[in-house]
Amino acid sequence: MDSRNRRRIGIVGAVAGVGAAGVGAAVGLRRLAVGRVRLRPDPDADEPFGTLRGEELTVQADDDLPLHVEIDEGADGASDLTVVFCHGYCLTQDAWHYQRRDLRGLRMVFWDQRSHGRSGRGNPLHATIEQTGEDLYAVLTAAVPTGPVVLVGHSMGGMSIMALADRRPELFGDRVVGVALVNTSCGDLAEMTLGLPLVLGKLVGPLAPRALRGLGRRAALVDRARGLSADLAFLVTRKMAFADKQVSPTVVDFLEHLIRATPIDVIAEFYPALAGHDKAAALKTIGRLPVLVLAGGKDRLTPAAHGRLIAEALPDADLVEVDEAGHVLPLEYPGVVTGALRRLIARAHPSHVEPDHDEPGHEQERTA
User: Which tens digits make up the pLDDT trace of 79-112?
Assistant: First the structure.
């Protein structure tokens, strides 16, 4: 325990919670609340979300599904290290926008999980964490044929890394030299309460898979309805995904757009896989390497306790817990994520040298 590095970052700000114009408010008040939020000064208003692109590559998964991959080659003379980013449930590779922007110079690989973003629509029977681990192996084989690799996974992307470690442990220690697990869990998500009080969450939780399957059978109708409730979607996204009340409205809009672009039947297909996920045994393999674990203190989907459990099982884990953060640390506190990734790379591949970076202050940590 003493050998592990632990950091806790407290962000001074407004108390988390829902205001008078919360999710259940009347339409008029809801629009007023959203309008006020969007009228605030927004330092990210001109951020070109979704426009950073790399060299495109189509990778065939083991079931012949085309996976959309992009490669940022990095600076001339850079080390042979490649950092591979795996996004989360209902998102795309663009969720790594700030890290892609701020780690230019590294060789980086980004990919869209099956049935997400610009990857092909998979067989519903293949909507499993095990399959996403095999997809990651296909991406590595095609996009990083040689050289050391650091794997970075957010939420479901972290689970994909665990699935790869479970199926192909021989990669870890030779090819894979470091791992970052962000807002993720190694299992026991059946107890997830979705931010509801514990008793209510236990009642609602078992209904979620059935309800989602029912919505999935009416996918076209549900997806049309999702597009008609932009104000409600904005408020729900801000409450469920973020904890910082001052989070950029542009960032919230961007995340809501990514989620809304994920078809409801895809959401329904993957939900049971997440709820049944159990890859605790894979931590023994991952534990051979330097590991970064990032957790949000107010994460409603994969609570910080899950990150702590992962870190406790790993002998060389750097645990960074941001008290006032939710489920999307790469977007909510990008500077924390990027700075921690730089430290991980320095530990995992010491021959890779970057200019010195000062530890950011709290505001810099939030806005990068």
Answer: 789 999 999 999 999 999 999 999 999 999 999 9
CATH number of the domain at 331, please: 3.40.50.1820
Question: Of 354, 368, 323, 345, which Cα lies nearest the Cα of 180?
Answer: 345
- Determine the structural domain holding residue 207 and report its residue range: 1-12+57-350+359-368
- pLDDT tier, 229 (very low <50, low <70, confident <90, very high otherwise): low
In a domain, 34, yes or no: no
Distance separating alpha carbons of residues 13 and 22, to the nearest angstrom: 19
- From 74-83, 124-133, 135-144, 295-304, the region with the lowest mean pLDDT: 74-83
Is the pTM higher than 0.90? The answer reads no
Cβ atoms 153, 133 nearer than 8 A: no
Enter the tokens of residue 20: 């008078």
